[in-house]
């Protein structure tokens, strides 16, 4: 076989290996080599572009992380700066809350409770100093009202007997000498409640009686009510008949919303108790341990009251707006506790602390003409009143400026928390938190 034939056979076998049709010429072989080189170059360029894309992506991720960390640091520093309490050289207190500019409330602008507490902190004063026990401020309007109350007086045919007289005298002596704790021991049916009633009658001080559970609290409330029929004996316990706290099951990604059922009668008695504490000094509150939980600011609750007197000049629209701010609901048909109704020039209000009576405010233009107490079921007038004081329908009522400031703080804290969750890759938690917080904010507006 000649060299030329061998060369052709080699070229044909290479054509078959590359699976490229050929007619056996040198030109075709050169074309195949050129196309193979083009494919190799294209693959190489594709790999280079892929590596460059990965590099750009890593750079973008790194820049995003740095941006998030710097933004997070700014928010942290801003929130820490806004939550400080600053004292200046003149001993004036500058309180700043999140989202609120610093306001100098020293001097006349400072509330009485803050004044007393500020003095307590600046003087490094413990709770007990100079022979006096530190007590919070009571407003002047409350003090004026307290002067009109009656003294504690037991209405019973029983007289102290056995060891009761000595126990009563020892307890009174301990209270007068400002003993912090005293213990009265006695078997069941020995008259411990009667002994305490005699002590209250003697010292003439408003008293809170705490019981370990609702059943015992109800029993003590009934007994003190019988001993002091002419004084204010109130009942303050938890008003929940049923309470299901919110929960989350990660295994099934299930969210269980909070659910509760409020006992209307107990809620009314709670409002009656807080009203008596603000208006009367002859007050005994029988409570379970739930009374230790906070129910809001006393000053805020007192400021959200509405005083209406005969002869006052007030627009009906302004009066209705005040009732709505106190969380009273408007009804068109029959009124229930915690609601109001408008009938022409008359406004009927069912206060939160009353059970079987409501108030009717008759207006002539913008003037309050008459105020009547009536039966909300029959509509029959019971008596005429000269003035009324309407308390809020909720212990957690909040003034509009305070609510607006709180919403601003919540929104800022939400942004800070969402950045943290996204940085940790918890996108589902961030979405759920955003949805829940925004829903609560819309409900509160």
Automatic annotation (TrEMBL):
A GO term, aspect molecular function: ATP binding
UniProt GO cellular component terms: excinuclease repair complex
Superkingdom as given in the UniProt entry: Bacteria
GO BP: nucleotide-excision repair
Alphabetic keyword roster: ATP-binding, Cytoplasm, Nucleotide-binding
SUPFAM superfamilies assigned to the protein according to its UniProt record, in alphabetical order: P-loop containing nucleoside triphosphate hydrolases
PROSITE patterns (alphabetical): HELICASE_ATP_BIND_1
InterPro entries cross-referenced by the UniProt entry: Helicase/UvrB_N (IPR006935), Helicase_ATP-bd (IPR014001), P-loop_NTPase (IPR027417), UvrB (IPR004807), UvrB_inter (IPR041471)
Gene3D superfamilies to which the protein is assigned, alphabetical: 6.10.140.240, P-loop containing nucleotide triphosphate hydrolases
Pfam family, one: ResIII
Residues of the Helicase ATP-binding domain: 173-342
UniProt cross-references to SMART domains, sorted A to Z: DEXDc
Transmembrane segments: none
Name of the protein in question: Helicase ATP-binding domain-containing protein
Species this chain originates from: Candidatus Liberibacter europaeus
Higher taxonomy: Bacteria, Pseudomonadati, Pseudomonadota, Alphaproteobacteria, Hyphomicrobiales
């Amino acid at each position: 076989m000649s060299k030329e034939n061998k060369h052709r056979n080699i070229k044909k076998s290479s054509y078959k290996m590359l699976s490229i049709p050929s007619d056996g010429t040198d030109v075709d072989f050169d074309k195949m080599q050129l196309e193979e080189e083009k494919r190799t170059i294209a693959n190489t360029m594709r790999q280079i572009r892929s590596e460059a894309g990965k590099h750009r992506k890593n750079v973008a991720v790194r820049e995003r992380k740095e941006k998030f960390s710097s933004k997070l640091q700014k928010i942290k520093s801003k929130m820490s700066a806004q939550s400080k309490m600053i004292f200046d050289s003149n001993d004036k207190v500058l309180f700043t809350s999140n989202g609120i500019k610093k306001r100098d409330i020293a001097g006349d602008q400072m509330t009485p409770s803050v004044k007393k507490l500020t003095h307590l902190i600046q003087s490094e004063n413990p709770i007990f100093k100079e022979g006096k026990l530190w007590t919070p401020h009571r407003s002047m309007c409350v003090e004026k009202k307290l002067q009109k109350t009656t003294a504690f007086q037991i209405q019973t045919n029983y007289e102290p007997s056995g060891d009761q007289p000595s126990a009563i005298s020892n307890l009174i002596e301990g209270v007068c000498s400002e003993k912090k704790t005293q213990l009265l021991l006695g078997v069941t049916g020995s008259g411990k409640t009667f002994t305490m009633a005699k002590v209250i009658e003697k010292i003439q001080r408003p008293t809170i009686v705490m019981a370990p559970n609702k059943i015992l609290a109800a029993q003590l409330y009934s007994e003190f009510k019988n001993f002091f029929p002419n004084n204010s004996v109130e009942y303050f316990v938890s008003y929940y008949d049923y309470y299901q706290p919110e929960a989350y099951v990660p295994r099934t990604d299930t969210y269980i919303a909070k659910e509760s059922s409020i006992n209307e009668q107990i809620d009314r008695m709670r409002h009656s108790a807080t009203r008596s504490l603000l208006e009367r000094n002859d007050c005994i509150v029988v409570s379970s341990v739930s009374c230790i939980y906070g129910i809001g600011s006393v000053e805020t609750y007192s400021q959200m009251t509405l005083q209406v007197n005969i002869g006052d000049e007030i627009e009906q629209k302004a009066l209705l707006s005040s009732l709505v701010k106190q969380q009273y609901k408007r009804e068109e048909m029959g009124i229930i506790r915690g609601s109001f109704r408008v009938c022409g020039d008359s406004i009927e209000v069912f206060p939160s602390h009353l059970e079987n009576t409501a108030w009717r405010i008759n207006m002539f233009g913008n003037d309050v003409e008459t105020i009547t107490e009536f039966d909300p079921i029959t509509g029959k007038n019971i008596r005429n009143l000269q003035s009324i004081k309407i308390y809020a329908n909720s212990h957690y009522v909040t003034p509009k400026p305070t609510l607006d400031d709180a919403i601003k703080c919540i929104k800022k804290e939400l942004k800070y928390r969402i950045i943290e969750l996204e940085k940790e890759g918890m996108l589902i938690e961030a979405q759920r938190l955003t949805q829940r917080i925004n829903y609560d904010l819309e409900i509160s507006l």
